[in-house]
Amino acid sequence: MCGIVGVVAKQDVTPILIEGLRRLEYRGYDSAGMAVLNESAVLQRLRATGKVAELANVLDRQPLHGVTGIAHTRWATHGKPSEKNAHPHICRNKVAVVHNGIIENHEALRKEQTRLGFEFTSETDTEVIAHQVYHYLDQGDKLLDAVRHSCADMEGAYALGVVSTTEPQRLIAARRGSPLVIGVGDGEYFIASDVAALLPVTRRFMFLEDGDIADLTRH
After folding, report:
1. Is the peptide bond before 200 cis (omega within 30 degrees of 0)?
2. Running along the chain, 219 residues long, what does each successive block of 10 average in pLDDT?
3. Contact partners, residue 125, CB within 8 Å, separation at least 6
4. Who's near 179: CB < 8 A, 6+ residues apart?
5. CB-neighbour burial class of residue 133 (10 A; exposed 0-12, middle 13-18, buried 19+)
6. What is the model's pTM?
7. Which of 68, 147, 177, 209 has fewest C-beta within 10 Å?
8. Euclidean distance between CA atoms 210 and 131, whole angstroms
9. Is 116 buried (19+), middle (13-18) or exposed (0-12) by CB count in 10 A?
10. Residue 139: other Cβ atoms inside 10 A
């Protein structure tokens, strides 16, 4: 858990994501990452341990571009500080999730997801969210419903940003117990765990209340 930034926009979101993470560095963290849906709706991810500057260096070597994306700075709770435990977490190259908070029933969810054939690549509680959303998409849900049903399955606290290749110009946000704000732009929307992350791009905000789920597109 620590800092979240997300964008669905008409411009390349990568600079907005990296600047948003820089503005959340005051929270303390041990790793950082981002996932972006490119123009072909392919999910691309970069992660790095250490400071946001390390992620920016990786981004210089492996540029990502897209109009929908999520990013995160992590302070380790479940699982040691490492690249594999850094957010975003991805399921089968279809769903990406960033998460603040703690999923208290993650062990039960992990056990059931393992039975269903999901493979885990991290030690985090967050990875079960990505798998759960994928499971509901696989059952025929649209992304909004998949996140809603996943939230109903989870116990604990969370602020979420979720994107998927199934609806590449959509960003779903959800909040229970951890703060999350929506930034309103001109034909674009943003999410963050603190308004400070979004001040370069907007001064208009909506604050999610506990239990809220937001469905964001450019429109």
Report:
1. no
2. 89 96 85 94 94 94 96 68 81 97 95 97 93 98 98 96 98 96 96 96 97 96
3. 77, 78, 102, 103, 106, 156
4. 159, 193, 194, 207, 208
5. buried
6. 0.94
7. 209
8. 23
9. exposed
10. 10
Question: Phi then psi for 49, rounded to 5 degrees?
Answer: -85, 160
Q: In what side-by-side order are the strands of the sheet with 95-103?
A: 89-91, 95-103, 156-164, 171-176, 213-216
Here the tokens at position 24 are: 């959340």
Beta strands per DSSP E along 151-219: 156-164, 171-176, 181-184, 189-192, 205-207, 213-216
Q: How far apart are CA 29 and CA 75, in angstroms?
A: 4
Cβ(85)–Cβ(79) under 8 Å?
A: yes
74 neighbors 2 (Cβ within 8 angstroms): yes
| Sheet (strand 43-49) strand order | 43-49, 31-37, 68-74, 2-8, 189-192, 181-184, 205-207
Specify which residues 65 forms β-bridges with.
none
Reduced to 3 states (helix: H, G, I; strand: E, B; else coil), residue 3 is strand
